Amino acid sequence: MIMRDASIETTAIGVVGAGSWGTALAQLLASQGFSIDHWVYEDEVREQMRTDRENGRFLPGVRLSDNLHPSGDLDAVVSGKDLVLVVTPSHVTRQTMQRCGPAIDADTIVVSASKGIENQTHLTMSGVLTEVIPGLTDQRLAVLTGPSFAREVARQVPTVVTVASGNPDTAAYVQQVFATPYFRVYTIEDVIGAELGASVKNVIAIAAGVIDGLGLGLNTRAALITRGLVEIRRLGLAMGAQPRTFTGLAGVGDLILTCTGDLSRNHTIGKQIGQGRKLKDLLAEMHMVAEGVKTARSVYNLSRKLGVEMPISQAIYHLLYDDLDPKTALHQLMTRDLKQELDEI
Ligand SMILES: NC(=O)c1ccc[n+]([C@@H]2O[C@H](COP(=O)([O-])OP(=O)(O)OC[C@H]3O[C@@H](n4cnc5c(N)ncnc54)[C@H](O)[C@@H]3O)[C@@H](O)[C@H]2O)c1
Ligand SMILES: O=P(O)(O)OC[C@H](O)CO
Q1: pLDDT in tens, 268-282
Q2: Are 109 and 80 in contact (CB under 8 A)?
Q3: CA-to-CA distance for 206 and 236, rounded, in angstroms?
Q4: Which residues are catalytic?
Q5: Ligand 1 pocket check for 289: Cβ under 6 Å
Q6: Could you identify the atom of ligand 1 that is nearest to the CA of residue 115?
Q7: Å from CA of 17 to ligand 1 middle
Q8: What is the interface pTM, i.e. ipTM, of the complex?
Q9: Is 105 annotated as a binding residue?
Q10: Ligand 2 atom 5, closest CA
Q11: What are phi and psi of 226, to 5 degrees?
């Protein structure tokens, strides 16, 4: 049993986004007894969730509790809530939350569970939400992240995540709301570090998939994860993150999961590219999001703008957008100038 403050039990919650992660988290909360208003984008998905109590498109095989209420009314889902959870793909977060931002009450806690960096602004999701939700400050904002495949959380596989907020009280509140005996929640204060770890690992996971698609070995994958973490940390430091964040769940934890787990969409797309398939064909077949594809563009431009050395991430950008051959990319990475391993800081 997780001990919660009695006041937590009556928390009114709205969830925006019913992809695999939005549905898994909404169901997790519903299974704990919270009444959930859940905004579902597609009419047919919403209808199926209402009638069959299943989201067959994004999270098949998981029965939805009766206290999870699918809705197409975005304003109604977010208004009058103690907590609003935003779980849209990062490229539609701005447009979605711009629509309903004014309906969110001034004291509502807003939690982002999306992972990505906007292409146009280079903002992480906390930055986007702060721009589009009137009056939202970092005091009412939190980020839920860490190694967590939706399908495993839905099966109640023991999972450990972290909640980042600039306000420790907000982090502690969100921690209490989400924690279950199979979903352990830590807190940290470094929001930008947590979001960068969560976002850039998707680019490195594409690289890990490419390595597997090329049929390379475990040595290569371990090297990739290690050097990928160096790149994530470098970008993080350049953007004001705390270095220790990257040794935690939002950093190395999520990086290991996504680089090694067959359930990862980012890893899968990388693997197919390694096997010779083209990005545009893969995207045309996918109804889910592989955030690393868009984030690779943001990271490429950010790293150049900030002068941060990120050779793996830059190679993935060229592979995705300039048709760089995977074997050539690997050869270029392996034959870079020889150097000392660790950065000064
Ligand atoms: N799936 C996971 O295991 C997992 C785990 C942790 C974090 N995340 C993150 O959660 C976020 C959401 O991913 P997901 O896996 O739930 O999504 P998904 O890939 O399963 O589904 C896509 C979602 O996008 C929505 N969508 C498509 N077009 C839209 C539009 N124009 N406006 C609004 N919504 C639209 C769909 O309704 C659906 O909810 C991503 O940032 C992802 O990285 C996912
Ligand atoms: O399936 P992916 O690659 O989007 O990864 C899902 C989560 O981010 C893992 O923590």
Answers
A1: 999 999 999 999 999
A2: no
A3: 19
A4: 201
A5: yes
A6: 41
A7: 7
A8: 0.99
A9: no
A10: 264
A11: -65, -45
Mutate which of 27, 38, 41 for ligand 1? The one with the most ligand atoms within 8 Å of its CB, which is 41
> What digits encode the pLDDT tens for the residues 5-55?
888 989 999 999 999 999 999 999 999 999 999 999 999 999 999 999 999
How far is Cα 94 from Cα 127, in angstroms, rounded to an integer?
Answer: 10
Which domains, ranges and CATH numbers included, belong to the chain?
6-189 (3.40.50.720), 199-334 (1.10.1040.10)
Asked if residue 309 lies in contact with residue 285, where contact means CB atoms within 8 angstroms, the answer is no
Contact between 40 and 70 under an 8 Å Cβ cutoff? The reply is yes
What sign does the dihedral 91-85-52-73 (CA atoms) show?
A: negative
Order of all β-strands in the sheet with 183-188: 68-71, 36-39, 13-16, 83-86, 109-112, 141-145, 159-164, 183-188
**Residue 187: other Cβ atoms inside 10 A:** 16
Using most ligand atoms within 8 A of CB, pick from 112, 143, 202 the residue to mutate for ligand 2: 202
